[in-house]
Write a structure and sequence with these properties.
heterodimer; A: mainly alpha; 5 helices; about 0% strand; globular; disordered N terminus; B: mainly alpha; flat; Fluoride-specific ion channel FluC (chain B); fluoride channel activity (chain B)
């Protein structure tokens, strides 16, 4: 996989960005891509976009962790891109709104589903990384 | 309405990107200050409270403009809070007790924060009550 962020290779380039800039750059990417997902898949009945970004982002973060990514790659991909791509605030507000408009079962399914599918995605990430030489 | 003019869309994307930069940066800063589990818990509670307040305030009173709200919530708040780090922490929790604490903490306090922000938005709508001022900055 893309283990080599060119800027993370010591000595290869003199460009050595601050960790906060790496995280922030990843965060900007994650936020813009999440916005795009919400524009494409928004639904009145069920908060699909939030579920999608949370499961996908957890999977990608899992891949980075289990592949033994370097610290700066984890900052860019994990804390930055996946951290901003996934969201807890939208999840919690949407769950409360589902509950208060009477869809209590859907609210519970949303709360359990986000966690169960994200954990499953992390498990799949672990399986993929440990099976194949990346 | 010229809301879908390419330049407007570009401006929205740029603002969301800037919000994402700032939100993830603040989360990173919190990760450096306190333990990672506490930091994620803290940003998720604060972000849930802030988003809940803006959403319910818009529903009840609508003082904050819709476009600025979208940019702030989608860009900044949703990037400040995170689900993936929380999920990783749950998946890698060393013992079952820690797993329960992480999940119950984020879910329980996150939902509570939304309910608290709803109560605050309702109080604002019902007019500034003379008692117990101070929390409405």
């Amino acid at each position: 996989m893309t283990s080599a962020l060119a800027l993370a290779v010591p000595g290869a380039v003199t460009f050595d960005p601050e960790p906060a800039h790496i995280v922030g750059t990843g965060g900007a990417i994650g936020a813009v891509v999440r916005h795009w997902v919400y524009l494409q898949f928004s639904s009145e009945r069920f908060p699909w976009p939030t579920l999608a970004v949370n499961v996908l982002g957890s999977f990608l973060f899992g891949v980075a962790v289990f592949a033994g990514a370097s610290e700066s790659t984890l900052q860019l991909v994990g804390i930055g891109i996946c951290g901003a791509f996934t969201t807890f605030s939208s999840f919690s507000v949407e769950t409360v709104q589902l509950y208060e408009r009477g869809d209590r079962l859907i609210a519970a399914a949303n709360a359990v589903g986000n966690l169960a599918l994200s954990l499953a995605a992390i498990g799949v990430a672990w399986g993929i990384v440990s099976m194949g030489p990346l | 309405m010229a809301a879908d003019h390419p330049l407007v869309r570009l401006e929205t994307l740029a603002l969301i990107g800037i919000g994402g930069f700032a939100g993830s940066n603040l989360r990173f800063f919190a990760l450096g200050l306190i333990s990672e589990i506490q930091a994620v818990l803290l940003v998720n509670i604060l972000g849930s409270f802030a988003l809940g307040f803006l959403v319910y305030e818009a529903q009840y009173s609508g003082l904050v403009g819709s476009k600025s709200r979208t940019v702030f919530t989608t860009g900044f708040l949703s990037s400040l809070t995170t689900y993936s780090t929380f999920a990783i922490q749950s998946a890698l929790a060393a013992d079952p007790l820690l797993l329960v604490a992480v999940v119950a903490g984020n879910y329980g306090l996150g939902f509570t924060a939304v309910l608290a922000s709803r109560a605050l938005a309702r109080r604002l709508r019902d007019g500034s009550s003379p008692a117990t001022g101070g929390e409405t900055a």
